Amino acid sequence: MNFLTASIESLGAKVVGWFTVGYAMFAFLAKAGLLLLDRTTWNRATFDVVVKQVYFTAVQILPVFLGYALVISWLIITIILSTARDFGLTAFASEMTIRVLVLELLPFLTALFIALRSGSAINTEVALMQVNNELDALAHCKVPPMQFEFLPRLIGGVVSVVILAGLAGLLALLMGYLTIYGMSTAGFEPYTQTIAKIFDFTIMAGLLVKCALFGLAVTLIPVTAGLETPKKLFMVPVSVLRGMMRVFFAIVTIEVVSLALKYI
Question: Which segments cross the bilayer (predicted)?
């Protein structure tokens, strides 16, 4: 009986904790959204910080990321083409390539890439700022942390994931054509017709929304996890671990929901 009571209490505490974390994230996002719509937010200083965030998150890693996307795309396209030939489905190889790589795998891997590189860094930085009272110092100096520290990171994450996923998708389309048809122009018309058939308005809008949600997840969750950090230095690694686990589950949830809405 005591064990059952303890289990119920433990489960209840976890559920309350999840709701508390979720409420804090949505409240933070609502505050950021209101600030985003405020015309006074967009001065030169804020714009410069946003540009720097996009540079550090996307532009700085572009060569490495494109190399990573190129290798992944070539490998997956080769596997799909080989499997399609074995089962006599070569005519569907281009469509399978686009659906698997461009619509699903590359946006998901882009979000993971940004999460591991930038999300963890954001979580660590915000946690250290919280522990060292730097956020309080900024507020005391009338420098709003939301405007100059947090909102640029959210915007930078969304823009970076959308741009990188788009570039990876274009690269995969090019690799798919070269792998299936080679340097011949004979396959250009059927390949472009396949692309046009797949990428209707609904699919394009869904892909854009999914990438934007990925970008939001890899920045919003680390920021809020960093703000939850107790003012003890040894709690920073714990905060980063907790934040990155939440990011991973959020990314997987977004992908699963996207697949369910699209194919079920």
Answer: 15-37, 57-84, 154-180, 201-223, 243-261
Cα 52–Cα 53–Cα 54 angle in degrees, nearest 5:
90
* Residue-wise pLDDT tens digits, 110-136: 999 999 999 999 999 999 999 998 888
Amino acid at 159: V
Distances (CA, A) of 216 to 48, 90, 156, 210: 20, 38, 9, 10
Where do we find the tokens 């998150």?
57
- The structure tokens listed for 90 are 């070569």
HSE-up of residue 35 (Cα within 13 Å, Cβ side): 20
153: its two tokens: 């990171």
Question: Global pTM?
Answer: 0.90
Contact residues for 161 (Cβ-Cβ < 8 A; gap 6+): 107, 110, 111, 114, 211, 212, 214, 215, 218
Q: Are the beta carbons of 253 and 150 closer than 8 angstroms?
A: no
In this structure, are residues 57 and 156 in contact, taking their beta carbons and an 8 Å threshold? Answer: yes
Alpha-carbon separation of residue 154 from 20, 38, 50, 124, 143 (angstroms): 21, 16, 9, 15, 18
Give all strands (DSSP E) within 2-81, no chain letters: none
Is residue 105 within 8 A of residue 169, CB to CB? The reply is no
Q: Of 172, 189, 187, 161, which is closest to residue 103 (Cα–Cα)?
A: 172
Sign of CA dihedral 164, 169, 170, 176: positive
Measured between alpha carbons, how far apart are the two ends of the chain, in Å?
Answer: 43
Q: What is the pLDDT of residues 127-174, one digit of tens each?
A: 999 999 888 888 888 888 888 889 999 999 999 999 999 999 999 999
Q: Which of 247, 220, 60 is nearest to 154 (CA)?
A: 220
Nearest to 252 by CA among 57, 154, 112: 112
